[in-house]
Write a structure and sequence with these properties.
Elements: E1 10-13, H1 25-30, E2 35-38, H2 40-45, H3 49-55, H4 58-62, E3 67-70, H5 74-80, E4 84-86, E5 91-94, E6 101-104, H6 106-116, E7 120-122, H7 135-158, E8 164-169, H8 175-186, E9 194-197, E10 209-212, H9 217-225, E11 230-233, H10 235-241, E12 244-245, E13 252-253, H11 259-266, H12 279-282, H13 287-293, H14 298-324, H15 328-339, H16 348-355, H17 366-373
Length: about 375
């Protein structure tokens, strides 16, 4: 992309208001992060497009030199606004300032994102809550296809050369509608750079396939196994501020006021993860220090945020290596073995989801190693 290479799969930290909570952009760059997310709805409200335009785009405004993705603004609008009415023209909502009815059209969403200047921009879609059923789901799906066409037309008219437009697949939990939507959107592949999975729990997205709002390590790994390349979530940075460190053995709540944990962490002089390359672990910051300061000193929040951002980035890097070596199934098995103490505590949905792509977490790995030794390549289809 215009602001450098981003390797897939990737996890994108979220800078809702043009700031990563707890870290500076210089730190983000040094940690090796190459793609972050800004929220269009929030930037449009504050500081507003006049300021962004004056700055020459959101990259310059916030001092971020790597790649940037913006959403369409539609999802926040539907979830945060007091009233939103969807018409064919666009989404009608109450202005948070004046209460006046204001219309966000696909063209308007594009032109705001053109001003922001992100490297990846999202179409405006018609979002329905994932539990909605009936004709509304199909209506929203077809409208999202029509709005994609309007976004493509507007993007061709005023878009910047470097900006990649992503489509958002709708259709609720109805597989057939999802398939129809996907087929329609793939027909536009000459004008679309990627596909997002929308309308699940938040503002999801997937083509590169981009899954919006996914942040737990276990969710990320399952989504990647099912074909997702990109995901974003505020989870790793938010949870850091509450004192939770992400590790390959599961999350550790260092802020816990649980009597047992109090004793445990007060004297715990170990680092969060011995082999972690993050600045916090590298200088041997103890869990006792973090436990003592989290929620009190901002330095503790910075330290944990750095660890969590690196944790996600390193996990994605290891997944990438495993995929390139054709060892992803075995990587998944090893990961979950470490992540959950006992296979009996594997969540059923994870086991089932991975079985759908022929990775059986509960099966002994004998077949893999024997086949491998004989020089027969492990093959999904053959299984
Ligand atoms: Zn660390």
């Amino acid at each position: 992309m215009a602001h450098g290479v981003t390797w897939l799969p990737t996890f994108m930290p979220v800078a809702t208001q043009a700031a990563i909570k707890g870290l500076t952009y210089q730190q983000m760059e040094e940690l090796g992060v190459t793609l972050i997310l800004n929220n269009t709805y929030h930037l449009n409200l504050r500081p507003g497009m006049k300021v962004i335009q004056e700055a020459g785009g959101a990259h310059k405004f916030q001092g971020w030199r790597k790649n940037l993705l913006t959403d369409s603004g539609g999802f926040q609008l539907v979830s945060l606004s007091k009233f939103t009415k969807i018409t064919e023209e666009g989404a009608l909502f109450a202005s948070p300032f004046t209460g006046e009815p204001t219309l966000l059209t696909p063209e308007e969403s594009m032109s705001i994102q053109h001003t922001i200047g992100a490297d990846i921009i999202m179409q405006l879609d018609d979002v329905v809550p994932s539990l909605t059923t009936g004709p509304r789901v199909e209506e929203a799906m077809w409208r999202s296809v029509r709005w994609l066409d309007r976004c493509i037309a507007q993007h061709k008219k005023t878009g910047q050369q470097h900006q990649n437009l992503f489509a958002i697949i709708q259709g609720g939990l109805n597989e057939e509608l999802r398939r129809i939507c996907l087929n329609e959107m793939v027909k536009r592949k000459d004008s679309v750079a990627g596909y997002a999975i929308g309308g699940l729990s938040g503002g999801e997205a997937k083509g590169p396939r981009y899954s919006m709002g996914i942040g737990f390590a276990e969710d990320l790994l399952v989504c990647i196994a099912l074909g997702v390349d990109m995901a974003d979530c505020v989870f790793p940075t938010r949870t850091a501020r509450f004192g939770v460190a992400l590790t390959r053995k599961g999350a550790v709540n260092l802020h816990s006021r649980n009597a047992l944990d109090l004793k445990k962490y007060r004297y715990d002089m170990d680092v969060i993860e011995e082999d972690c390359p993050c600045p916090t672990c590298r200088v041997k910051t103890s869990k006792a220090f973090l436990h003592h300061n989290i929620g009190i000193e901002t330095a503790a929040a910075h330290a944990l945020t750095q660890h969590n951002v690196v944790f996600q980035a390193r996990l994605m890097g290891d997944v990438r290596d495993a995929i390139l070596k054709d060892e992803f199934p075995i990587f998944l098995k090893n990961f979950f073995k470490t992540y959950y103490d006992d296979f009996k505590s594997y969540p059923r949905w994870i086991v089932n989801a991975l079985r759908s792509v022929s990775v059986d977490l509960l099966e002994e790995d004998l077949s893999y190693s024997i086949l491998d030794e004989e020089g027969v390549k492990w093959d999904r289809a053959a299984k």
